[in-house]
Predict the structure.
Amino acid sequence: MSGEEALSRAEMRASHEDRDSVVDQLRVAAGDGRIDGDELDQRIEAAMTARTYGELDKLVKDLPQSAQPASPARRTEAEASQNITISHGNTHKRGAWLVPRRLNIAVRHGNILLDFTEAVFSGVREVELALDLRHANLRVIVPAGTALDTSALATRHANIGQPDLGPAGPEAIRLTISGQAEHTNLRVRRLSRLAERRRQRRGRRELGRRGRRELGR
């Protein structure tokens, strides 16, 4: 740029890969509970139409480094076991969260939602939930065709809901639930058809935006 002042990073044009990286980061943040579903959709819309690094940076400036998308290092970390401990509270995992091979879950008077439908697996798509639940509600949403094994789960005054999870599909996982649950409601279900259609429409919108950008280049 002879005779002109060099552009700052914020003014430089972003690539498709840059936009996709920010979208992944936003989904991880949603999975960590940092932003809700409506805000996720708004930020993804803005990311897919962003032209510069500055526009992308604004969408993630309030998110910590821990909300970065899955990298090889983070995938390695995800292979180890992780702990979730709750007392008189609520928590959830959804979006593009990294799934360990084993989740140790201890709850006393609390509620947990685990959504595996957009989760990231570092290798084989299988996970064990090792439970120690008392007066708890645990809701698990899985991809269609998931194989569920609860043979190692001991229950006492517990309600276990295991509806038909449908035929095996490419996104199916193997879910093993072990441990103990007392005075607990445990429900495992597949994503509702309405939610599936919404997710598919969102995916088609993203593909459409990418196609329009390609045509405009």
